Amino acid sequence: xxxxxxxxxIVPNQNISFPIGTIHTVENLYQVLNCSxxxxxxxxxxxxxxxxxxxxxxYKLNENFSxxxxxxWINRVEVLEIFDLEPFGERTLxxxxxxxxxxxxxxxxxxQDILFERYDFEHTDIxxxxxxxxxxxxxxxxxxxxx
Length: 147
Hints:
The chain is an all-alpha fold.
């Protein structure tokens, strides 16, 4: 016998939810890949780049909307507590992304070094230099040639 539904109508409320599993996964991978060292060397003052990067990555893996919405999501009291952050302005996220973009080649290289060291990948012709892929059209042409 099927159970009778508890409600016939969904009523909006102020309850919030956020992806604790995604947040823990980001925290764990951030530690395993030593991302604090990789990103931390590019910003010394102000809000901790690593805390913001973890919060932004958690948001993008779950919601993947605009930076404006990311700012709203991260600035909720519960999320700020989890990432040990103080409230901050929307422009702060843009500055963090500018910093990461300005150092992207070094960041990608550092991540590749850690991945190759940690997982002992063989260095073969199959390992692609991802830093050479600068735009989407180039990426699409590479994909078409490999099919």
